[in-house]
């Protein structure tokens, strides 16, 4: 069965620190990969997505992620975080024959100290 | 910017009662989905819906659950006889396309918090 693992449950950083959130998935076939963000009190929003082509994907708000097929990984990065990045981050994969469902990781809560 | 809306934002019900959660997907989208998130757990896929039929459903989506598109704008999730373990946040989503397309981006609504007492 397809699954997504996010290794960091809660990450605490100071402003301007660099961020990397780990994500691994288990599925041997074609995948679409996503990072969603949920700011406090708000709904899930797409940060970035990978469908094909360049494995380094740039998203909104300065985030990027790198798809490494050999490692089944899709880690999220940001060189310098801001207090407004405080949120829950979900890695997700779209897989299967119809690619109609998204499978989410358990989420990483990011807290930024001002 | 168009968005998915859901009503109500919070529903409290007694165990055994029927509930209907409502969603208005983005108007030109053709694919609709329900997900749920039990407190402290992962967001889980429930069902996908296209052309007035269920495309795919998870093991969670048993006979107690049903979905419907009663008119051209609403998409509903019905739970016939609620159980305590149905307490969760329920998210509706919609997408323009599905499958292996770069337009297969699911847009999520704000969720309905269901509390079963």
Number of helices of chain A: 0
The share of residues in helices of chain A is: under 10%
- Average pLDDT of chain B, rounded to a whole number, is 92
- Report, as a whole number of angstroms, the end-to-end distance of chain A: 41 Å
* Basic shape of chain B: globular
Walk me through this protein's architecture.
The complex is a heterodimer of chains A (114) and B (117). Helices cover 0% and strands 53% of the residues of chain A. Chain A is mainly β and 114 residues long. In chain A, the strands form three sheets. In chain A, strands 2, 5, 6, 10, 11 and 12 form a six-stranded mixed β-sheet that branches. Chain A has a four-stranded antiparallel β-sheet with strand order 3-9-8-7, with no helix packed on it. The model of chain A has no long low-confidence stretch (mean pLDDT 91). Chain B is mostly beta strands. Helix content of chain B is 0%, strand content 49%. Chain B has no helices and eleven strands. In chain B, the strands form two sheets. In chain B, strands 2, 4, 5, 6, 9, 10 and 11 form a seven-stranded mixed β-sheet that branches. In chain B, strands 1-3-8-7 form a four-stranded antiparallel β-sheet, with no helix packed on it. Chain B starts with a strand and ends with a strand. Chains A and B meet through strand 6 and strand 11 of A and strand 4, strand 5 and strand 10 of B.
Relevant terms:
heterodimer, A: 114 residues, mainly beta, four-stranded antiparallel beta sheet, B: mainly beta, globular
What's the arrangement of secondary structure elements?
The complex is a heterodimer of chains A (114) and B (117).
Chain A: E1 3-5, E2 10-14, E3 19-21, E4 24-26, E5 32-38, E6 45-50, E7 56-58, E8 64-68, E9 73-78, E10 87-95, E11 101-104, E12 108-113
Parallel strand pairs in A: 2-12
Antiparallel strand pairs in A: 1-4, 3-9, 5-6, 5-10, 7-8, 8-9, 10-11, 10-12
Chain B: E1 5-7, E2 10-13, E3 19-24, E4 31-37, E5 43-50, E6 53-57, E7 65-68, E8 75-79, E9 88-95, E10 107-108, E11 112-116
Parallel strand pairs in B: 2-11
Antiparallel strand pairs in B: 1-3, 3-8, 4-5, 4-9, 5-6, 7-8, 9-10, 9-11
């Amino acid at each position: 069965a397809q699954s997504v693992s996010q290794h960091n449950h809660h990450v605490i950083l100071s402003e301007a620190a660099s961020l990397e959130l780990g994500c691994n998935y288990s599925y041997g076939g074609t995948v679409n990969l996503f990072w969603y963000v949920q700011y406090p009190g708000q709904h899930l929003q797409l940060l970035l997505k990978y469908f094909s082509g360049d494995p380094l994907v740039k998203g909104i708000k300065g985030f990027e992620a790198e798809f490494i097929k050999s490692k089944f990984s899709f880690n999220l990065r940001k060189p310098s975080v801001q207090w407004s990045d405080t949120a829950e981050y979900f890695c997700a994969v779209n897989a299967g024959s119809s690619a109609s469902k998204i499978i989410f990781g358990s989420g990483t809560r990011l807290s930024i100290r001002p | 910017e168009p968005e998915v809306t859901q009503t109500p934002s919070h529903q409290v019900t007694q165990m055994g009662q029927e509930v209907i959660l409502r969603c208005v997907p983005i108007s030109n989208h053709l694919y609709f989905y329900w997900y749920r998130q039990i407190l402290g757990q992962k967001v889980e896929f429930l069902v996908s819906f296209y052309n007035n039929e269920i495309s795919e459903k998870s093991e969670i989506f048993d006979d107690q659950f049903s979905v419907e598109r009663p008119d051209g704008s609403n998409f509903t999730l019905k739970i016939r006889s609620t159980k305590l373990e149905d307490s969760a946040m329920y998210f509706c989503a919609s997408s323009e396309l599905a499958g292996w397309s770069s337009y297969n981006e699911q847009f999520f609504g704000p969720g309905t918090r269901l509390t079963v007492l």
